[in-house]
Structure formats: C-alpha cells, structure tokens
From TrEMBL:
Record organism: Citrus clementina
Annotated keywords: Signal
Domain Prolamin-like: 21-91
Protein known as: Prolamin-like domain-containing protein
Pfam families: Prolamin_like
Protein's UniProt keywords contain Signal: yes
C-alpha cells in the first residue's frame, strides 16, 4: 500500500534536489544580479543573461516561483513574475544571437 506521507516526503526531496541542481548552474554574482532585477530597475549584464539561458527555463521559473511563494516576497509576486518572464525572453533572444 502506498503511504501518502512517503509520497509527499519523496516529492519534497526531489524538489529540493532539483532546486540545488538549478542553483549550481549559475554563479552567485549572476544569481544576485537577477534576483535584484526582479525588484528594482537594474541592468542584467550579458554574462548573467547567458548563464540564465544555460540554466534553463524550467530552473529559472521554478526558482522564481519559489521566491514569490515566500510570505516575504508574496506582495511583489505580480510584478516580479512579469519582470522575470520579460527577462527570460530578452535573454533568450540574446542567447540566440550568440549561437
């Protein structure tokens, strides 16, 4: 018989592993640059943009959603999610230019 608690625990464990793998795909400087961008009008440099695209869309949006699910940042979720989507689109275009 499947224990729902084991299933829930396993899902959380896999999610945690996924987040850890995602965060290792970007330098701390770029992580900070992109994090600040979601709240403020700062420029994301080309290097960080390319790192973002290399990290992958699934990682980017999983991490962004995780940030805005926190009570600390929930009030900024609408604008932050929009900014993160716009940033992804801009960086994807930039990355295509480098291919």
């Amino acid at each position: 018989m499947l224990n729902p608690m084991n299933s829930h625990f396993r899902r959380r464990q896999l999610t945690s592993i996924f987040y850890k793998k995602c965060t290792k795909k970007m330098t701390s400087d770029c992580s900070e640059n992109i994090f600040v961008y979601m709240f403020d009008d700062v420029e994301v440099n080309r290097t960080c943009c390319l790192e973002l695209v290399q990290m992958g869309e699934a990682c980017h949006f999983a991490l962004v959603e995780n940030v805005f699910s926190s009570p600390v940042y929930k009030a900024n979720a609408n604008s932050g999610l929009l900014r993160s989507r716009n940033l992804w689109n801009q960086c994807a275009i930039l990355a295509d230019e480098y291919d």
